[in-house]
Structure formats: structure tokens, C-alpha cells
Amino acid sequence: MAAENIDDVVDGLAGIVREAGRAGDRVGYFAALYRQVTVEVRTAIHGGLFDDGARMDRFDTLFGNRYFDAYDAWRRDQSGPRCWRETFGLLDDADTVIVQHLLLGVNAHINLDLAIAAARTSPGEAIHALRRDFLLINDILGRVVLEVQDSVGALSPLMSLLDQVGARTDERILDFSVRQSREEAWYNAVLLAGQNEEEREATIERLDIRAAVLARLLARPGGLVRPALQLIRSTESDDVPAVITHLDNAMERPSARQGTG
Q1: What are the Cα distances from residue 65, in Å, to 60, 132, 224, 242?
Q2: Which InterPro entries match (predicted)?
């Protein structure tokens, strides 16, 4: 599939979510999260939040097409970027917890695709004018992450308990990690925007390798993390379609955070 604008991106993601729900395919987990982020970005564009709404539409379309290309390549012959192969390769692994699936998608899309999409949106010196709008997405992404985290808590009782005990520390860490990744993505976007084709290919190769290594660490952590994840997984819902539906409605559900101090 190929999107021509942000509406196409939303529709394409919604289609993946629907099909994943029917098939009980865990690819719908990240797709549901990504759809909600894209809807929020589209709302911000229509609301005039960004300096250049038309540019952000182009940017989000290029960004979305990176995901669609990786998804189509995997479905076709399990090809595509290394980091996406690592991510999609765990979809049939029943031992991988919900949050791992989400983080694996976030890792590939931010640590590889984001810089490429930004550099293609604003090549050369034009990249610097994109920075403010690029950073505004951090706030949108952070807000969606918090709401989806609440949804995960309803599906994963032990994760919810750890969330309460940790006073939402895990969310702050996740939000900080996403912001740090996006800062690095911005640095790489500036780098890519100023490179020739041969240099860009080498940089993209390096980014893909690094994101693939991070994916393996997320998928197969060592030490005490692995048994902890196994314990968390034992309490999670095995109803994949229900999980997808729950995650896909996270931004429409009244937040448990509302009304609290």
C-alpha cells in the first residue's frame, strides 16, 4: 500500500488493525498505537498547531509509507529492513509481552524511519526549518503513550500492579526514552539531509543495524528482566483481537488520570 496524504496513512493503519483483529495477529498491537498517534497529528495539523501544516502532512505521509513498505515486504517474503524483520519476526511468539511488541515497533519506526522521513521532507538546509514542528510531535507521542499504557494495564494485571507500585516511573522512563530517541533521530535527519546518495545509503545501513541490535535486546533481555517478563506474560490476556480493540480505543476511553492531582 502507498499513502498519498495523512488521511491515507490513517486509513491504511485502520485497515491493518481491522485485518489483524479478524486474524488474531499481534501486528495489530503497534498498528493500533501508531494509528492513534497519526490521528492526533492530523488533528494538530487541522488545528493549526504546526508552523507548516502542509509540510507536516507530507512528512507524516513519508513516515507512514516507511511502515507500510516494511509491512508489505514482510508479508510478501519476510524481507525489508533488519530492524523491522526483528520486530515482525516475534509476532507469533506467544511469550512476548504486549509492551515488548509496542516498544519493538516504536524502536524500528523512530530509530530508523523517522530520520529518513524528515530528511526527505526537508532536504539540505531546509531541514532546520522543520525542527520546531518535529519536536512538537514529542508532546503528542508522549500523551498517546500514557493513554496506551493505561490500556495495557487493563490487559496485563501484573504490569498494572508494577505501574502503581512504581508511581508511573516506567511511563516517565518510556517517555524520556522516546524523547531521547527522537533527539537522536533529529541529529540523523540533519546528517541525512546534507549527504549525497552514497553517503545516505551508508548512514541508513548503519541506523538499521543499530535499531536491529536494540530490537534484539528488547526482545531477549538478560538478567532478571527475562523471568520478570515471563511472569508478566502469564497474567496477560491471550485474546489477541480483544487486546487490539482495547489498544485501538485508548485515546477515546476516559483516562483514569483525569480528575487526579
Answers
A1: 8, 22, 37, 27
A2: DUF5995
